[in-house]
Amino acid sequence: MKPTDPVGGPASDDAEPAVPPPLPRSVLVAAGAVGAQALVFVGYAVSELGYAAFERSGTAVAVAAFLGAYGIALGFAIAGLLRRRLAARAPLVLGQLLHLGLAWNMRDAPLTYVAIALTAVSFVALAGLFAPATTRMLLAAEDPDHR
Hints:
This protein starts with 24 loop residues before the first helix and ends in a 5-residue tail after the last helix. It is elongated, with a radius of gyration of 21 Å. α1 (25-55) packs antiparallel against α4 (112-130) and α2 (58-82) crosses α3 (89-105). The protein is an all-alpha fold. 70% of the residues lie in helices and 0% in strands.
């Protein structure tokens, strides 16, 4: 008698692990948009550290530490999204809402162009995060029976 798998059918020694379907384009777009933001935050943190070394400013060190940690946290959230973790979407959405508030505060000259760019990238990321294909992928990864 052949052993059975947990579902009751015959076990197969040749069973290969199921390969997940490719990531939807909306996930890749959202990950790219947030990834660009994360790189900008980490890059700005590095530049603040350079300023801190030159000017001996404690505030610059604090800003660098905060922005660097924030950029790295965005990177971890992106990794979770690319691993199809539903819980990764919430911090990414919260980050985009924070960016929209930041862009609103930067709307006056001379930072108007920065505010426009940040707003555009945030809306692209939110569109990718809330796209139906993204939601289906995340729900299917959490519950394989979900259709």
